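Can't attach files on this board, so I'm pasting raw text. These are the components:
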Amino acid sequence: MVAAALLFGAVNAYAASPTLDKMKSSGAVTMGVRESSIPMSYTTGDSRFDGYHVEVCRMILADIKSNLGLSTLRINYQPVTSQNRVPLVQNGTVDIECGTTTNNANRAKDVGFANTLYVEEVRIAVKANSGINSISQLAGKKVATTTGTTSVQLLRKHEKANGVNFDEVFGKDHADSFLLLESGRADAFVMDGSILAGNIANSKNPKDFKIVGEVLATEPIAIMVPRNDPEFKAAVNAAIAKIVANGSMPKLWDKWFLKPIPPKNAVVGLELSPATKNAWANLNDRPAEDYAKK
Amino acid sequence: MAFDFGVFCKNTLDGEVVDHCFSAIFGLAQNADPSYLDWLMKAWAWTLAVAGLSLVIALILGVLMGTLRTIPPNSILNKSLVRLSTAWVELFRNIPILVQVFLWYHVIPAFVLPLKALPSYCLVSIALGFFTSARIAEQVRAGIQALPSGQASAAIALGFTTSQSYRFVILPMALRIVIPPLTSESMNLVKNSSVAFAVSVPELTLFAMQAQEETSRGVEIYLAVTLLYALTAFSVNRVMALIERRTRVPGFIVSNDASLAH
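---
Top answer:
Structure tokens for the assembled complex are below.
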């Protein structure tokens, strides 16, 4: 209650926030969502969107709505892609992006990031019968990853640093990369753990694949907000603090990562990682570069 | 909007500025880490390799299939060759190029196992070459049919066999006529080679998508890639124009030069 009262005061004191002003005057807000980033943010058909980050964002917006004293706040869903998500937040088309965006220093020049609620770990997916258990066993093998992702650069760095030589093959999207692994064109698929788990859960025979090996990188995935609007960011972070404090986060994790989810009732099956737990315990908006230094 | 083309002199591992932009290719600097410019040049080489290989496949098969479509159906063998070439053209020009690339990469090797051993750029070149050959075949056919029918009759009157009349009379004239549409088709091939990124050939389009994600300098990257595509297609245009001038038969094709006209 005290926090809410403080926030309410803060919002009134800094009425210069363009996003909050827009929400107040129009009674609507535009949420950027992804179409197939299961289970973080995806469509469940009929232009409906759901997922871990989407649900968190709905909670955040509900909190802001009550703080602004609005009776209704309509949420417009705007599907975004890896290519257009940053420009759409920059030009104000999207007020809050709830997808799978890595918070890094380069992007922080263009947009703002809310406190991290999900820390992604880059892992290796292989066929269950391949006998591969670690990155050192990938020498001379074909490793698939998706064009336009940070995992490509990560693999390159790793190859350089450890002298493990492997052939890279690139899928044009995650489904293609997974097909490369499935059809034997690649021996391993290196990507964010949630994407690997989601693709395996949706495959013909989920038991044929497994996620193995060490964590290649940890990256904070965060909700994106406009950069020039610190008041809005503060309001979002205050809402996040409340959601974490009332114990919703473990329940949300359970719902989206460990239980059957729509539309196919598949189970992603990704256990809560210590890194994500730590992010909840110490709320922060540190970029990926800070995680790499650890 | 401020442009920062300095991104091309950064290395691809950690984004630090390198001493010489062409560090890796020409061995100018001691550091072996390639810059984005090195990578861009390598990607351009892949684009050229894919476009060049598919152009060879497309020209050979296109001229062959286009010729077969016009041969007189006066024997069972000739009839079946005409049918084969018609089927070829209709098959390969009715399926989108991206779908054909996926068919050659993922589907056909599942049935024809030796194809699995072929590198992806070969499979893409086959797909692009076959797709373009169907289009070239139609142009060659149109060129042959544009010739006055008297030419074929005259060749037969001289005692030439069918293959001799094609070799010495019809094709030399028909192929000259179709050089302008062949030019467009060859330029299209350069641009169509961008689909190769979809099956992990590290060419210009793949470079653009990956490098803009790593550097967040999408505008500069796409400008450079656009320039290279335009430059490549325009070079093809100039080479074809040269061939067109060199092979011209004075007085045959209506020319802008009035003195050459009949």
